[in-house]
Write a structure and sequence with these properties.
Blueprint lengths: L1 H16 L5 H30 L6 H18 L9 H22 L33 E2 L2 E2 L5 E2 L3 E2 L31 E2 L2 E2 L5 E2 L3 E2 L31 E2 L2 E2 L5 E2 L3 E2 L31 E2 L2 E2 L5 E2 L3 E2 L38 E2 L5 E2 L16 E2 L6 E2 L7 H4 L7 E3 L4 E4 L4 E4 L16 H14 L13 H5 L35 E7 L6 E6 L4 E6 L9 E3 L29 E2 L7 E2 L41 E6 L2 E7 L3 E2 L11 E2 L19 E6 L2 E7 L3 E2 L11 E2 L20 E7 L2 E7 L39 E2 L2 E2 L1
Antiparallel strand pairs: 1-4, 2-3, 5-8, 6-7, 9-12, 10-11, 13-16, 14-15, 17-18, 19-20, 21-22, 22-23, 23-27, 24-25, 25-26, 28-29, 30-31, 32-33, 34-35, 36-37, 38-39, 40-41
Helix pairs in contact: 2-3, 2-4
Length: 787
């Protein structure tokens, strides 16, 4: 120890000797000496008083210090580092020597750990917390302690009851209890809001809406040309062009629909319920009778009569098509049906073709065209692509209500799929062999839908279900209904976007068979041992055995002559028979010239739609004639045919109608507010009192409660937690309330506007706690303790 002191002194002497001593140095040294002598004088007075039992006398010490202090400053002629601080020095030394006297009298030397808050910077000392507690510091409850450095330890103070699963106190959340918050309520576009272990909101799963960047994300339905894989057909329409509006929501104005069963004739319907489109038996060329509408929304002429005089006598006469069993030599085949069937005759002496089978070759469903290179979608006109030609009959299905669907083109009856654990469950898979021995056998054993002739479809039958306009799944929406857990085969129709077995073996490998992938409509071969899905079918064309192949081709059979239908003789007014053309349904002799027969297709001609001279027109759009009825083909931009009534054309202004905004039936709805439609997009017009549209997203309306949301309290963007020195805040009645303050600060004026404005460690009016005022002539508050 002696060596260290000597070394220190030697080093100090060398350092001082290395420069000249200035007048300032001399003054500073004199003042240090005077300060030491004054402190010693006071301590000597304390010692004398202890021996004599009298009060200590400091007068001589005080007078000597002041006089000599002033003399040192005068001698230095203003060169002292400080000047005029005799009184301040005296006060400081008096406080220090008083504490020293108290220490040697038993109180101990001031230090951290002696149980007294007696050192500058101490907030507490052991159990001595300076009169403060968790609650006085703004916490809800808990135990305040003092750490080894004499600083307040608030770790055991409770601001909430985090972990009990209920959001309370100043918690932002607790477990699954997020209060009323969500990603959208906090200003994000979408996503999943979560709760952190410390009961603060976790927004890492929230995402922003980047509408306009050309990529569909967040809660966008689409973005520019990115429609998210959707189309008019996938949205439930029959066809048309789907678009995206400026708010990244679908614009279905270019989609067309068939709503068979709504009582209004629209789309390609021939009729709908009582709405026959103005047609009657007589306008269709019959003599009389009652025209009706089939459940498939096609005209039913079975009760129309071609003759009022002879029908019912069993002999085909006049302009009757048939009478009883007398079919006039006609058959299903002679009437143009490609498959045999049984032709009948109605009570009105008209052909009953319900027993005839046409089995149309179905379309692929595709309605768009693509560039020769690259992935751009291009207009179809002139390309010759499938999307332009659209050859084949449109998809047409009928749900039979018994767990089956009939393909009206092929006559095939398909099993629907369920999600109820039954043999029809969408999740059942089989090896190819088990599709016959387990699946098909089980369906037939149950006499499903009243039949026991169910079978596995062949490759072409199975592929006929593919719709190449769609992707994942590439199948008609008829086969993709809602499929909730537990739904039965009659209530839903499910599809897997993967492989289904066909009954057709692969000629290139006896261990492989054909299958169809309904993700994209692919037809490919695969091993019989795989576990794939299966769908049962029945009906369709009657099968005929394949002829045994021969090495030498036989001569083709000589075709037999077919009977040419003769023209019927219609009685004239005078009774003299004249030859007049008999027009097929959908055609008419509109130019009254027998030479060119029934030259006008009244089923498609917009100037003679349904009958000669009936011209179709559409306000704010263009017209079409479908199955003899006028329809709206397309609407001008900003208009829509929302009532599906061709007579008034495109009657609705979709640019401004909040009930048909951007597209028909797109109703603008604003939660907790009112809506408007501007340029085909829904907007928030106004919010109810106490609510705000703080994320500027019309999809969720006025989503934010400005009476309770601390981030938007009283108005959007008014963040209570951003107040000065606030650790937690709440919103009540649209007004911010301070719930917790940062360590070392208090809200003593109970005014949330300025947050936690008070520092209790140095505020003489709130020393250690709100309202704790320090007294004395010159009170001070240090470390939360009055001095």
């Amino acid at each position: 120890m002696t060596f260290r002191i000597i070394a220190l002194i030697a080093g100090l002497s060398w350092a001082i000797g290395a420069r000249a001593i200035t007048p300032a140095d001399k003054c500073e040294a004199a003042k240090d000496t005077l300060a030491g002598k004054y402190a010693a004088c006071r301590q000597n007075a304390e010692a004398k008083a202890i021996k004599t039992g009298k009060l200590p006398v400091y007068t001589g010490c005080d007078n000597s210090l002041v006089a000599k202090w002033v003399k040192a400053e005068t001698k230095a002629n203003g060169a002292c580092p400080t000047n005029g601080d005799a009184a301040a020095t005296q006060a400081f030394l008096t406080s220090t020597t008083d504490k020293l006297a108290a220490a040697v009298a038993g109180a101990g030397i001031p230090r951290c750990g002696n149980g007294a808050i007696d050192v500058a910077g101490e907030q507490c000392d052991g159990p001595n917390l300076g009169g403060v507690s968790c609650t006085s510091l703004g916490f809800l409850a808990g135990t305040l302690t003092c750490d080894a450095g004499c600083k307040l330890d608030t770790s055991a103070c409770q601001t909430n009851k985090c972990g009990n699963g209920t959001k309370d106190g100043i918690e932002g959340c607790d477990g699954a209890d997020l209060g009323s918050e969500s990603c959208t309520a906090l200003g994000f576009a979408a996503g999943i809001l979560a709760c952190k272990p410390n009961c603060q909101l976790d927004t890492s799963g929230c995402i922003n809406n980047l509408c306009g960047n050309g990529t569909q994300n967040g809660n966008e339905a689409c973005d520019g040309a990115d429609l998210g894989g959707q189309s008019c057909i996938s949205l439930g329409f029959l066809g048309g062009t789907l678009a995206c509006n400026g708010l990244c929501q679908f614009n279905t104005a270019g989609c067309t629909n068939n709503l068979c069963g709504n009582g209004t004739r629209d789309g390609n319907e021939g009729c709908d319920g009582a709405d026959l489109g103005g047609a009657s038996c007589t306008t269709l060329g019959f003599a009389s009778g009652t025209l009706a509408c089939k459940a498939s929304c096609q005209i039913d002429t079975s009760a129309c009569q071609v003759s009022t005089t002879t029908c019912g006598n069993g002999v085909k006469q006049g302009n009757e098509q048939c009478d009883g069993a007398d079919l006039g030599g006609q058959t299903c085949a002679s009437l143009g049906y490609t498959v045999a069937g049984t032709l009948g005759c109605t009570a009105g002496c008209a052909f009953n073709t319900s027993g005839c089978i046409a089995q149309a070759f179905a379309t692929t469903g595709q309605i768009y065209c693509s560039a020769a290179s690259g992935g751009a979608v291009v207009p179809c006109a002139g390309t010759g692509q499938d999307g332009e030609i659209r050859a084949g009959a449109p998809f047409s299905y009928n749900d039979n209500g018994d767990g089956t669907i009939t393909d009206l083109n092929t006559g095939l009856v398909w099993e629907k799929k369920s999600d109820d654990g039954s043999i029809h469950d969408k999740d059942n898979t089989y090896s190819w062999g088990n599709t016959f021995s387990v699946f098909i056998a089980g369906v037939n054993a149950a006499n499903f839908a009243g039949h026991h002739d169910w079978r596995l479809p062949n490759a072409k039958e199975l592929a006929s279900l593919a719709d190449y306009q769609l992707f994942s799944p590439a199948v008609s929406p008829t086969f993709v209904t809602s499929c909730p857990v537990g739904c039965s085969v009659t209530a839903c129709n499910c599809v897997q976007t993967t492989w289904y077995w066909a009954s057709t073996s692969y000629a290139g490998n006896n261990n492989a068979v054909w299958a169809v992938n309904f993700n994209d409509g692919t037809l490919a071969d695969g091993s019989k041992l795989q576990g794939l899905y299966a769908r049962a079918v029945r009906g369709g064309l009657p099968g005929t055995p394949n002829p045994t192949p021969t090495l030498t081709p036989t001569n083709p059979p000589t075709p037999t002559a077919t009977k040419t239908p003769t023209q019927t003789i219609a009685p004239t007014q005078t009774g003299t028979p004249t030859l007049a053309p008999t027009c097929s349904v959908g055609f008419a002799d509109c130019n009254n010239n027998p030479a060119d027969g029934c030259e006008t297709a009244t089923s498609t001609n917009v100037n003679n739609c349904g009958s000669c001279g009936n011209v179709c027109s559409a306000a704010h759009g263009t017209s079409s004639c479908i199955v003899g009825g006028c329809h709206v083909a397309s609407c001008n931009a900003g208009f829509g045919d929302c009532n599906n009534n061709a007579s008034d054309g495109c009657e609705t202004a979709t640019n401004s109608d909040p009930n048909n905004c951007g597209s028909c039936a797109n109703v603008c709805s604003t939660a907790n507010g009112t809506s408007s439609c501007i340029f085909g997009g829904c907007h928030v017009a106004s919010c109810n009192a106490g609510f705000g549209d703080c994320n500027n997203d019309p999809a969720d309306g006025c989503e934010t409660s400005t009476t309770t949301n601390p981030f938007n309290c009283g108005g959007c963007g008014n963040n209570c937690t951003a107040l000065a020195n606030v650790s937690a805040a709440a919103c009540a009645g649209g007004t911010c309330t301070v719930v917790g303050c940062n360590a070392g600060f208090l809200n003593c004026n109970n005014d949330s506007a300025d947050g936690c404005e008070t520092n209790p460690l140095n505020d003489v009016n709130n020393c250690g706690a709100c309202g704790h005022v320090c007294s004395g002539a010159t009170p001070t508050c240090t470390g939360g303790t009055c001095h």
